[in-house]
Amino acid sequence: MKKNVIVAQSGGPSPVINASLQGVIEACAAYPDQIDRVYGGWHGIEGILLEELVDLSAQPKEEIALLRTTPAAGAIGTCRYKLKDEQTEDYERIIEVMRAHNVGYFFYIGGNDSMDTAAKVSKLAKERGLELIVTGVPKTIDNDLGDEEFTIIDHTPGYGSAARYWAYLMQNVNEENRGMCVSEPVSVLQAMGRKSGFIPAAARLADPQREMPLQLYFAESGHTLESLAENVNRQLQQSGRCIVVVSEGFDVGNLGEARDGFGHIEYGASQNTVAQVVVNYLNSVGLKARGQATGQVPGVLQRSVSIFASCVDIDEAYQVGQHAVDIAFKHGTGWMATILRKPGETYQSYFSHVPLEIVANSARHLPASWISPDRLDVTDDFIRYARPLIGDGWPDIALENGFQRFARLSVSFIEKKRPVYLPIRFR
């Protein structure tokens, strides 16, 4: 008997998350004897709880093809709905909806919290006698999924594009800083990364020969506002200008933090930003150069701008989505698709799988061995690791009347079969 599929997305989006969605949808078409319809959970697990399911099998093929270069998660939406162990009603509702719609396969695209949810759904389905195969598809621009030995996953889809964004941004920021240094000698930029420094580290890819007056402050650096100011002023005395990239997780004290549905600090909604605190502090203690420090916060642009997407990242995001479907059929429930790197000087990736329980709620930091002794830079080992991920060419993005053409799916929900339900966290 044929079964249906639900695919959903969770957490912050990325420039390539929809490429993984496309990979899942198109790979499912290769199993016509086992799969009937592919449904999308509208805004992630919330869509499953609310029984708001979009029939992706009914979408025009040209729109599905455009998912490859459609950024963020607007195509079927995402959410930050945290499923905790005590939310038994929510878990039972998920199983109820899956059973009602003859769902035999569930693909969840997301990071560590999402893999935790996928693992719990897989376990509960077994306990409730539902034949449901649950497979995770990795996603996070932070690259903080997995272990610091890179045995679980080498890198996550989304990171290569965020790294490319920062490499290109820094090239342009350097030109701005060169031109304006007589009045704005210090340029401070804030990069995403709550606890992991992979994104600010990518700024160094713009300058592997270390010709820019660039200082990087990771969440793992251990520096303070005081040491940052000392380092910046020392650089100003040497070159008359300085570019500072600071992680949003760099400790500058209380920011009036807001938190998202996962309990993570949501820096874009907090009362202050790390960049502004740094700028204010530098200007208050004084600069060893004429002029002032200025700050910029790219914010969600670094995860939602498709023109900076890495072609390598797009291809791998699509392929890991396809691979997840193959894993489901070959290995059954409870796995996450993963990307690993072949040894050797030339970059080559390959795809494997790991148990969901291993990656659930995992957290990877920038390895200490990749941070320079003064904790203001990365080593050449990091550059060798990250450089291949940003690729070389520009993505081929469809244009219409001179503007980017993104996928636009028809969002009409399939017929509901269960009573109306209000998720626990909505009450």
From TrEMBL:
Pfam families referenced in this protein's UniProt entry, alphabetically: PFK (PF00365)
Catalytic activity: beta-D-fructose 6-phosphate + diphosphate = beta-D-fructose 1,6-bisphosphate + phosphate + H(+)
InterPro entries: ATP_PFK (IPR022953), PFKA (IPR050929), Phosphofructokinase_dom (IPR000023), PKF_sf (IPR035966), PPi-PFK (IPR011404)
GO biological process, one term: fructose 6-phosphate metabolic process
Annotated site (Important for catalytic activity): K139
UniProt key word Transferase: yes
Residues at the catalytic site: D142 (proton acceptor)
Residues holding Mg(2+): N112
Similarity-based family: Belongs to the phosphofructokinase type A (PFKA) family. PPi-dependent PFK group II subfamily. Clade 'B2' sub-subfamily.
Name the record gives this protein: Pyrophosphate--fructose 6-phosphate 1-phosphotransferase
Originating gene: pfp
